[in-house]
Automatic annotation (TrEMBL):
It comes from Noccaea caerulescens (Alpine penny-cress). Residues 159-176 have a biased composition (Low complexity). Residues 11-34 have a biased composition (Basic and acidic residues). Keywords: Iron, Methyltransferase, Nucleus, Oxidoreductase, Transferase. Residues 134-158 have a biased composition (Basic residues). This is Lysine-specific demethylase JMJ18. Residues 1-10 have a biased composition (Polar residues).
Length: 826
């Protein structure tokens, strides 16, 4: 992906301000690109000229080019993984889509092309490599070399530099350090139509020869570009509309939210860059925020010589760039295993710039000759990207390049599971460099692990034998030595080593609150390391935390005042590794953690939306202790929901129970999320007393929940509240409670306790509370438009026979005095 930096010295700001005096009166100040003075670029001659005899085109090898078939092109991440072993050694590659891939460009709509303006930056192409450190720069406004193709100097009227653009634009109140950083000043605002016209004028003027006007080849432009960068004779400045956020021009691809005919295949495709970061299998899908430039694409509108300088992607992510229209882009890539070598070579040849600014490469404002890199033994490769083609860059692969003329491209990041090891290396490097992170790597890592656990659980508990592609993809990353398993295990070993190095006893280790970093970023006070997984603190400074590496630097307090917060213990993380390896007991434990946690989060999000008025009709009160009302003769349609129909009392009928609804949850409008007799809200939770599975002589509380089993629909879970390890899961509410009952009976047998011959079955719907009128009424209120058709059709059909579908005339059950398993029933 391309990024640019913005900076402005104090003297340049004054010069820029003086230009404003030539603008029209205040009433026209917002029309600066339509009514510019004669000194603006639209009126100024381009004096600098092409010197073909001095061309310095690099002689380097081409990166590989791939042409997927239509079938291969259907799965974006699968194709990237397929070509990775072949392409990653080059750091960069070109992908030519099938001939059928011709997405319409949204930017060519008249309202955008002719009327929507975007900001630009001014690039001094001749200073991208050959420049003096800013502290040595003469204070005079005049430069030694003549300004031959000066761009307009009207500044942006509003907005700030993009998140990844460093350093930010300076102002008159900026610190001296910020003012001394070299960067790209803000330029005029253009429409695409205006920018295209100027770009064409500039290129024709620059490359024109006596009595001829011809379009130079890519190779000729490339030779001239590197002549300007390496051995400049004139000052050459160009505009670049780079890092344009979504709110400026929007995306070049149509999105799902836009109703345009004939674009469905492009709107839904993974090659639509609006979809790519959050595709199933990309761990960026576990990032909650829409980070501009990372998860939300940026646009790049270029002209001849406009440049993107050497850089790697944030967190060493992959990037994918699509060329929407216009003239070619020339790229150069260095594989990730040569990244350190590139940095050493640039430091060797540009010592003054690095002495002044050690993090020079973070600024994205320094170009460097591929020829010199090659001479110094750095592997470097070339790509020419044409309209309608993609360029893919790999983790920690430095890349740079320039544009051959007016064009428009779009780029975004993506993180296949295989990126996790690279991402871990990136955050460790950022910590050493005291550099802030853009993402919480541990959130992404754990998010991937949670999703894998869900998939493994779904596959292991599926009785139909059907396997969906997403679950199988996640399974492929698991198992012993699986990519995801290795990433979690490596993180575990890292934590074990760092906790061990602290030498703390177990009493100083505490469980981290689940919401520790939910409402604010938690990062190390010293190195900015993300603290999602662990954090060190002290009683003396509440709110301040350190990573485990800088725990001792936080304060000088006694050890008894210090503590370490852990999201998961080392035993729990070890169990997670085993779960990913396929150990059934550990998988069960983590499936319970993950599914339960996700439902709790979803319920919290939606509970505030459900008003008390919707819970009840006509002002009736919501009783938190609702007596069970039984429908013994209700017709059963689904086998999973059948209670005993033998006419004998079921276990749920043979004692007086009260259902305590804990959470209504929220509705999912799918076929599996209701039956003819009940609606199953995702996140529903209730409490009920029943015989303890460990000691049937006691009555204990059980928590009944409705979780999400993916394609299988609702997953019903019952847990013994006093012993959470005793949990039962099934895709049927009835079967779930049948499992509880069977466990009770088995325990009775092993303990030699008598069982009642009438204790033959249990009604799962009843035990969940789905047959209790007040609960039913509250759940029905969640579906005012009757979208759960199967349930409402059946209810409407039977409404004429009974005013209340859930209470039949034969359902009243009188409790009989006596004992069952030695427990008094009355």
């Amino acid at each position: 992906m391309e990024h640019l930096s913005v900076a402005q010295s104090e003297s340049e700001i004054k010069e820029d301000t003086s230009m404003k005096n030539h603008h029209p009166p205040d009433k026209d100040k917002d029309k600066d690109t339509n009514m510019e003075p004669p000194s603006s670029p639209r009126h100024r001659m381009v004096v600098a000229r092409w010197l073909p005899a001095e061309a310095q085109r690099p002689n380097i090898d081409e990166a590989p080019v791939f042409s997927p078939s239509s079938e291969e092109f259907e799965d974006t991440l699968a194709y990237i993984e397929k070509i990775r072993p072949l392409a990653e050694p080059y750091g960069i590659c070109r992908i030519i889509p099938p001939s059928t891939w011709k997405p319409p460009c949204r930017l060519k709509e008249k309202s955008i092309w002719e009327h929507t303006k975007f900001p630009t930056r001014i690039q001094n192409v001749d200073l991208l490599q050959n420049r003096e450190p800013m502290k040595k720069k003469p204070k005079s406004k005049k430069r030694k070399r003549r300004r031959n193709s000066k761009m307009g100097s009207s500044r942006r009227r509003s907005g700030s530099s993009p998140p990844s653009a460093e350093p930010p634009a300076a102002s008159s109140s900026s610190s001296p350090e910020a003012e001394e950083k070299f960067g790209f000043n803000s330029g005029s605002d253009f429409t695409l139509e205006e920018f295209g016209e100027y770009a064409l004028h500039f290129k024709h003027s620059y490359f024109e020869k006596k009595d001829t006007k011809r379009n130079p080849s890519v190779e000729e432009i490339e030779g001239e570009y590197w002549r300007i960068v390496e051995t400049p004779t004139d000052e050459v400045e160009v505009y670049y509309g780079a890092d344009l956020e979504n709110g400026v021009l929007g995306s070049g691809f149509y999105k799902r939210t836009e109703t345009v005919t004939g674009v469905d295949q492009y709107v839904a495709s993974g090659w639509n860059l609006n979809n790519l970061p959050r595709l199933p299998g990309s761990v960026l899908s576990f990032e909650a925020c829409d980070i501009s430039g990372v998860l939300v694409p940026w646009l790049y509108v270029g002209m001849c010589f406009s440049s993107f300088c050497w850089h790697v992607e944030d967190h060493h992510l992959y990037s994918l760039n699509y060329h929407h229209f216009g003239e070619p882009k020339v790229w150069y890539g260095v594989p990730g295993n040569n990244a350190t070598a590139l940095e050493k070579v640039m430091r060797k040849h540009l010592p003054d710039l690095f002495d002044e600014q050690p993090d020079l490469l973070h600024g994205l404002v320094t170009q460097f000759s591929p020829s010199i890199l090659k001479e110094e033994g750095v592997e470097v490769y070339r790509v020419v990207q044409n309209e309608g083609e993609y360029v893919l860059t790999f983790p920690r692969a430095y890349h740079a390049g320039f544009n051959c003329g007016f064009n428009c491209a779009e780029a975004v990041n993506v993180a296949p599971v295989g990126w996790l090891a690279h991402g871990q290396n990136a955050v460790e490097l950022y910590s050493k460099e005291t550099r802030k992170t853009s993402l919480s790597h541990d959130k992404l890592l754990l998010g991937a692990a949670y999703e894998a656990v869900k998939s493994l659980w779904e596959l292991s508990s599926s009785s139909s034998g059907k396997e969906n592609a997403t679950s199988l993809r996640w399974k492929s990353f698991c198992g012993k030595k699986g990519t995801l398993t290795n990433a979690i295990e490596a993180r575990l070993r890292m934590e074990e080593e760092r906790i061990g190095a602290l030498g703390r006893d177990a009493s100083s280790l505490a469980k981290m609150e689940k919401d520790f970093d939910s409402n604010c970023e938690r990062e190390c006070f010293s190195c900015f390391y993300d603290l999602h997984l662990s954090a060190s603190g002290c009683k003396c400074s509440p709110g301040d935390y350190a990573c485990l590496k800088h725990s001792e630097d936080l304060c000088s307090c006694e050890e008894e005042d210090r503590f370490v917060l852990l999201r998961y213990t080392m035993d729990e993380l070890s169990s997670l590794v085993r779960a990913l390896e396929g150990e059934s007991d550990d998988l069960k434990i983590w499936a319970s953690k993950v599914l339960g946690s996700q439902e709790e989060d979803e319920t919290k999000k939606t509970s505030s939306v459900i008003s008390e008025e919707k819970k009840l009709k006509k002002g009736s009160s919501f009783d938190l202790n609702i007596d069970l009302e039984l429908d013994c003769h209700e017709e059963d349609v689904k086998e999973e929901e059948e209670a005993s129909t033998s006419g004998e009392l079921t276990a749920s009928e043979s004692f007086g129970a009260s259902i305590e609804p804990m959470s209504l949850g929220f509705l999912i409008f799918g076929k599996l999320w209701c039956s003819k007799h009940a609606i199953f809200p995702k996140g529903f939770k209730s409490r009920v007393k029943f015989y303890n599975v460990l000691d049937p002589t006691r009555m204990s509380n059980y928590i009944s929940e409705v979780l999400d089993a993916g394609l299988m629909g609702p997953l019903f879970k019952v847990t013994l509240e006093e012993s959470p390890d005793e949990s039962f899961c099934n895709v049927s509410a009835h079967q779930c409670w049948e499992m509880v009952l069977q466990r009770v009976k088995d325990t009775c047998t092993s303990l030699g306790l008598p069982t009642s011959p009438r204790f033959e079955g249990i009604n799962g719907l009843q035990m969940f509370g789905f047959l209790s009128p007040s609960i039913v009424e509250a759940i029905e209120a969640l579906d005012p438009n009757h979208r759960l058709v199967e349930y409402w059709n059946h209810k409407n059909q039977t409404s004429s026979e009974s005013k209340d579908h859930f209470i039949s005339s034969n359902c009243s059950v009188s409790l009989t005095k006596g004992k069952l398993f030695g427990v008094d029933l009355m």
